[in-house]
């Protein structure tokens, strides 16, 4: 195991990574940032593998908290860590900051004017060890670095974003990869769970069951993220899923040239661009049928909690 004994560059950047049984990925992620971040916080959901051992070997501060969803876990991190850096980096355990982006961060971050409070990164997705370049999957422009005190995470069950206020954003161009090394069984299981959470989010959008943020705008995150959010919330989610999922796959695979990503690309675009979207719609239909006889909002929340296995009462998640 590579152990970083010291930080070569102190640019006032602190990193937060959420983990649960990430021994396969965590060392790689930490190695990609250990030379330029001032401190690393690992927020762990009670891993049972070597995750904590790896985190401690890199000198990370480890805190553990019961996982509810990504948004609440990350907000818990920001509320319960004593961050000393002027900037915060959000990184997933299966993501990598590549050397050219690390160099760009080291040299550009200290030179940014005070009006810049957020930094977008261009994420590329690696699937079956191949870069998915087409189908609208590159670049995925995501706000992942922000000045402390200027950003927060949306309170949502799915598709939560970091949003900023009080300043402007810039975009760095270096390599930033999402490269999960687990197999298709894991991929499908993960997306099945995502589909349940997204179905909850869609029902909440329709029924206003509990508080949710509406803070994604062109002024708070990247233009790409804001545009996708608007289309999804105001157009896509209102089209019958049997139609929308089919049209979305056709759009991605043919019009956005997803077919150029080869056989592995077909697997990815079909599973993520059709099967997943179809599954979300089917779960929404199933959940709507299960609560159609209920009128009281509290009873609806209780029934959805029972079916999905998620505790949806706001007071239970605080």
Count the strands?
Answer: 12
**Helical proportion, percent range:** 40-55%
Average pLDDT score: 92
* Proportion of beta-strand residues: 15-25%
Quaternary status: single chain
The assigned structural class equals: alpha/beta
How would a crystallographer describe the biggest sheet?
10 strands, mixed
Radius of gyration, in angstroms, nearest whole number: 20 Å
Please tell me about this protein's structure.
This protein has 318 residues and is of the alpha/beta class. Among the domains are: 9-94, Spore Coat Polysaccharide Biosynthesis Protein SpsA, Chain A (Alpha-Beta Complex), CATH 3.90.550; 184-317, no CATH class. 41% of the residues lie in helices and 19% in strands. The protein has helices at residues 26-33, 51-57, 70-80, 99-108, 184-207, 223-234, 241-255, 262-291, 297-308, and strands at residues 13-19, 39-44, 61-64, 87-90, 95-97, 116-127, 130-132, 140-147, 151-153, 162-164, 168-171, 176-179. Strands 1, 2, 3, 4, 5, 6, 7, 8, 11 and 12 form a ten-stranded mixed sheet that branches. A two-stranded antiparallel sheet has the order 9-10. A hairpin with an 8-residue loop joins strand 9 and strand 10. The mean pLDDT is 92.
């Amino acid at each position: 195991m590579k152990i970083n004994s010291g930080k070569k560059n102190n640019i006032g950047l602190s990193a937060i990574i959420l983990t649960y049984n990430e021994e396969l990925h965590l060392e790689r992620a930490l190695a990609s940032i250990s030379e330029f971040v001032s401190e690393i916080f690992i927020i762990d959901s009670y891993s049972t593998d070597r995750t904590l051992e790896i985190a401690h070997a890199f000198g990370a501060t480890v805190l553990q908290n019961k996982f509810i969803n990504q948004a609440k876990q990350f907000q818990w991190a920001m509320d319960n860590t004593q961050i000393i850096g002027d900037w915060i980096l959000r990184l997933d355990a299966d993501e990598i900051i590549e050397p050219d982006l690390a160099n760009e961060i080291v040299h550009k971050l200290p030179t940014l004017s005070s009006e810049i409070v957020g930094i977008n990164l261009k994420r590329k997705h690696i699937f079956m060890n191949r870069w998915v370049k087409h189908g609208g999957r590159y670049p995925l422009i995501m706000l992942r670095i922000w000045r402390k005190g200027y950003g927060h995470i949306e309170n949502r069950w799915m598709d939560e974003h970091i949003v900023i206020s009080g300043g402007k954003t810039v975009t760095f161009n270096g390599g930033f990869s999402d490269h999960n090394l687990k197999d298709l069984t894991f991929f499908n299981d993960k997306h099945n769970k995502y589909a349940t959470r997204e179905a909850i989010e869609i029902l909440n959008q329709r029924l206003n069951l509990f508080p949710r943020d509406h803070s994604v705008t062109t002024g708070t995150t990247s233009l790409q993220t804001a545009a996708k959010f608007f289309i999804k919330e105001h157009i896509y989610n209102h089209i019958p899923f049997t139609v929308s999922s089919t049209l979305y796959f056709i759009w991605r695979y043919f019009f956005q040239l997803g077919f150029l990503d080869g056989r592995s690309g077909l697997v990815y675009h079909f599973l993520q661009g059709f099967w997943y979207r179809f599954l979300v719609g089917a779960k929404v239909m199933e959940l709507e049928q299960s609560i159609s006889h209920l009128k009281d909002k509290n009873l609806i929340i209780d029934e959805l909690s029972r079916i999905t296995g998620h505790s949806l009462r706001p007071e239970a998640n605080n």
